[in-house]
TrEMBL record:
It comes from the Eukaryota. One of its GO terms (cellular component) is plasma membrane. GO terms for biological process: cellular response to calcium ion. The keyword Membrane applies. Belongs to the copine family. Residues 1-95 form the C2 domain. Keywords: Calcium, Cell membrane, Cytoplasm, Membrane, Metal-binding, Nucleus, Repeat. GO terms for molecular function: calcium-dependent phospholipid binding; metal ion binding. Pfam families: C2, Copine. The gene is Cpne2. It comes from Vidua chalybeata (Village indigobird). This is CPNE2 protein. It is found in: Cell membrane; Cytoplasm; Nucleus.
Length: 380
């Protein structure tokens, strides 16, 4: 500590390396100008801290921070994770911080302070695979953009061109992405919804209609089923607008909200939107995404065609946190955007990687936040 003064303490945690030298594993934040520091709780992998051996000695050193880097040594102690775990909220663990030089010099030296461990727990970190193998079902819904900006399906320039040779941009994307996701869907039955079209017989615009025209049972069997329903519905609808994403996001969110009542890691919902990227209800969509970020749900947007996808990139909150028009922040990033044009001539695996890049961590993040282990998991 400084003369007459307070110190700026921080702690460093070490484990013995293979060469017998101490290796730094974790450093706490510096608490400025105090003799009674309270450090924030932190998490460190057990393997990093003690190679998974709870009895292995670890060393904790307390320093007084100095801005020139010459931190002053206050004291140290050795302990083990097993000993630290004796600390519980009701009975904290007290460990004396010893400065060996001062101990030698002064007869009546007790310690250079006491470190109090309030609580130390070992929790198990589950992986995406743990949840899937534990019985969590991924429930995919496919949403297809049938708005007028996609072009007249009778024209070859349309992204929805009714091609005698049987393919177009949307079909290519449905096939490619559908084959990837169907491997993760338990029953391979997908609700397939369309938005932005006028439907027979009264030609009202719908922003969430079953593309098999069976609202009670919008499920299609596998990618083949989606492709069949898509091809069958194309000639019977009129492309229209506006391009509203929020109804279809809220549609899936209603199912995801029901799943939260189960209080187990049993279902996670994924909405795959295939779109040309033009969006009319950005405010409502941002709000819908922010609300959905609290639910077991993710959104994968696949952009087809060559439009400007700036709005889609914006929804994919990789660079900044998404806000609702109310100012509320998304609690986590749940949108992954993939421009299909970048993956036209690449192996299926490359596209799969891009489409599913963020999904595993989104699933784990949600269940961890809710404190839900996999359904069939061994205790830690």
């Amino acid at each position: 500590q400084d003369l007459f003064g307070k110190s700026d303490p921080f702690l460093e945690f070490y484990k013995p390396g293979d060469d017998g030298k101490w290796m730094l594993v974790h450093r706490t934040e510096v608490i400025k100008y105090t003799l009674d520091p309270v450090w924030k709780p932190f998490t460190v992998p057990l393997v990093s801290l003690c190679d998974g051996d709870m009895e292995k000695l670890i060393k904790v050193v307390c320093y007084d921070y100095d801005s020139d880097g010459g931190h002053d040594f206050i004291g140290e102690f050795q302990t083990s994770v097993a000993r630290l775990c004796e600390a519980q909220d009701a009975s904290p663990l007290e460990l004396e911080c010893i400065n060996p030089k001062k101990q030698k010099k002064k007869k009546n030296y007790k310690n250079s302070g006491i470190i109090i461990v309030k609580s130390c727990k070992i929790t198990r970190d589950f992986s995406f695979l743990d949840y899937i193998l534990g019985g969590c079902q991924l429930m995919f819904t496919v949403g297809i953009d049938f708005t007028a900006s996609n072009g007249n399906p009778q024209e070859p320039s349309s992204l929805h061109y009714i091609n005698p040779l049987g393919t177009n941009e949307y079909l290519s994307a449905i096939w490619a992405v559908g084959q990837i996701i169907q491997d993760y869907d338990s029953d391979k039955m997908f609700p397939a919804l369309g938005f932005g079209a006028q439907l027979p017989p009264d030609w009202k615009v719908s922003h969430e209609f079953a593309i098999n025209f069976n609202p009670r049972n919008p499920f299609c069997s596998g990618v083949e089923g989606i492709v069949q329903a898509y091809s069958a519905c194309l000639p019977h609808i009129r492309f229209y607008g506006p391009t509203n994403f929020s109804p279809i996001i809220n549609h899936v969110a209603r199912f995801a909200a029901q799943a939260t009542q189960q209080e187990t890691a049993s279902q996670y919902f994924i909405l795959l939107i295939i779109t040309d990227g033009v969006i009319s209800d950005m405010d409502e969509t941002r709000h819908a995404v922010v609300q959905a970020s609290k639910l077991p749900m993710s959104i994968i947007i696949v952009g087809v065609g060559n439009a400007d996808f700036a709005a889609m990139e914006f929804l994919d909150g990789d660079s900044r946190v998404l806000h609702s028009y109310t100012g509320e922040e998304a609690v986590r990033d749940i949108v992954q955007f993939v421009p299909f044009r970048n993956f036209r001539n690449v192996p299926k695996e490359t596209l799969a990687k891009a489409v599913l890049a963020e999904l595993p961590q989104q699933v784990v993040q949600y269940f961890k936040h809710q404190n839900l282990p996999p359904i069939n998991s061994e205790p830690a």
